[in-house]
Amino acid sequence: MTRNYLADLAEYLNWSDSQAIDWLEQITEEQWIQRAVSSFGSIRQTALHMVSAKKIWIDFWTKVNQPVFLSTVFNGAKSDLLELWKLASADLQDVIDNYPEEDYSKPVYFVYPNGRQGQLLFWQSVQHMVNHATYHRGQLVTQLRQAGFTDFSNTDLATFYIKQELLTSR
Q: In the chain, which residue ranges form alpha helices assigned H by DSSP?
């Protein structure tokens, strides 16, 4: 596992999250809280879960003392959550840029929301976080469609790589 590979994954996640944030900035408060059929009952709840997961992994990696799942304490507005999401993206980039490569194959200890404990190697946990976000971003798209929003951009990994290639070939 190389720093470049993990940096690419983090850059992809931050790029795709920025697309999702853009979508969410366009919807109404009614759409934000509208009941939806999915793992989470609204766009708000899905977005909150996504931000909470991103933030908690960063806390696990940086060994924050007694990390708290954002989803258990957040009561703010949509704009507050989206701002926290942007901050978490900057924090992710910082962690990936500064995490010692010699620690990529060392375990990261974490706690599930139900209190059960687990561990993954650092590089595995980064891959998991990206995969987890992709899964829930797909749910977010479905919920947004249910709420009448259709102005999507493609967030596939292939699209990201193609756009990056186009930017670097100029």
A: 3-26, 29-33, 43-61, 78-98, 122-146, 157-168
Residue 144: its pLDDT value, please?
Answer: 97
Integer angstrom CA distances of residue 156 from 13, 40, 133 = 10, 22, 12
pLDDT (tens digit per residue) in 61-97: 999 999 999 999 999 999 999 999 999 999 999 999 9
Q: Domains in the chain and their CATH numbers?
A: 3-168 (1.20.120.450)
Q: What is the pLDDT of residue 170?
A: 66
Tell me, what DSSP letter sits at residue 155? -
Question: How many CB atoms lie under 10 A from the CB of residue 8?
Answer: 17
Which neighbouring-strand residues pair with 110?
118
**Residue that the structure tokens 């990994």 belong to:** 157
- The set of residues, in sequence order, having a beta carbon less than 8 Å from that of 57 and lying 6+ positions away, is 110, 125, 129
pTM for the structure as a whole: 0.95
